[in-house]
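Help needed: design a sequence for this.
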């Protein structure tokens, strides 16, 4: 029933270590809210998401895997230490490959992940347009309570952060004093979240570092770290963005890179080295970036 194929698949063999204790379901935030029926087949929760494609075909994996938040709570709870989130990412990669082979494009999501997100100029222009278009919806607030049209479902049960009127890259000069006597310097990787949605957090980080005698560099070439593309299974796009970010943060190779966005710190320290591994031009540079990355 698919188990031999799972055993022979290096990416998913680890799922066979499962002892059916349901610890992963007990701590899964999605399972605790929606229960097991949404997973569609006998095995529910994140373990079911991983093994169901081998039992019922890969078309059965498309919806359940989207319920995973990749929070890694299941890894901490699993007595067999099965890395289910790693397999979820691998599964998403295979789904993307199958969609490409079958020429099943996913419209706006595909356009955003493969065209807009990896292009810093296009990405920032899109967000600037969004900042203008959201004005009738925000009414001076920093959150969006109701989006129109096909985006309405995103705010059906929650509010969304509004795009900042002025991103950090346009405000950073106001909080970067001309300190040339400092012996300590750092490069600040703001992440698109802080840069475009919460610039006041970035300003606060820079002020704290300045207070402790650190001169902060803010490379304007920096953009998204590629985590959304990586988590969605678009590994080629994520690898391209990894190379671009390495190049953007390299002008001062002796400096530490500090970030205040934990998922992006994980990307710089763990995922980027994986994405450029085996590339003779980028592997060593990716490891060097990981080694000098610090969480604020």
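Sure. Designed sequence:
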């Amino acid at each position: 029933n698919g188990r031999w194929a799972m055993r022979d698949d290096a990416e998913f063999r680890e799922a066979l270590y499962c002892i059916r204790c349901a610890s992963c379901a007990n701590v899964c935030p999605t399972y605790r809210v929606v229960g097991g029926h949404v997973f569609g087949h006998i095995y529910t929760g994140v373990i079911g998401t991983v093994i169901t494609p081998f039992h019922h075909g890969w078309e059965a994996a498309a919806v359940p895997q989207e319920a995973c938040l990749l929070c890694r709570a299941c890894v901490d709870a699993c007595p067999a230490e099965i890395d289910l989130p790693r397999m979820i990412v691998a599964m998403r990669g295979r789904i993307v490959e199958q969609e490409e082979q079958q020429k099943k494009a996913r419209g706006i999501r595909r356009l955003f992940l493969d065209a807009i997100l990896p292009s810093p100029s296009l990405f920032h222009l899109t967000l600037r347009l969004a900042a203008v278009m959201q004005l009738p919806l925000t009414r001076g607030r920093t959150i969006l309570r109701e989006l129109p049209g096909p985006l309405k479902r995103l705010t059906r049960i929650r509010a969304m952060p509004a795009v900042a009127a002025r991103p950090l890259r346009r405000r950073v000069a106001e909080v970067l004093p001309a300190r040339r006597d400092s012996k300590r310097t750092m490069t600040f990787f703001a992440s698109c979240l802080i840069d475009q949605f919460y610039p006041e957090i970035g300003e606060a980080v820079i002020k704290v570092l300045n207070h402790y005698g650190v001169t902060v560099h803010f490379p304007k070439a920096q953009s998204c770290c590629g985590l959304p593309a990586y988590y969605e299974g678009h590994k080629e796009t994520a690898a391209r963005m990894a190379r671009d970010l390495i190049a953007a943060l390299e002008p001062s190779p002796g400096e530490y890179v500090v970030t205040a966005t934990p998922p992006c710190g994980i990307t710089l320290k763990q995922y980027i080295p994986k994405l450029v591994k085996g590339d003779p031009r980028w592997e060593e540079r990716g490891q060097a970036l990981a080694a000098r990355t610090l969480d604020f």
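The radius of gyration is 21 Å.
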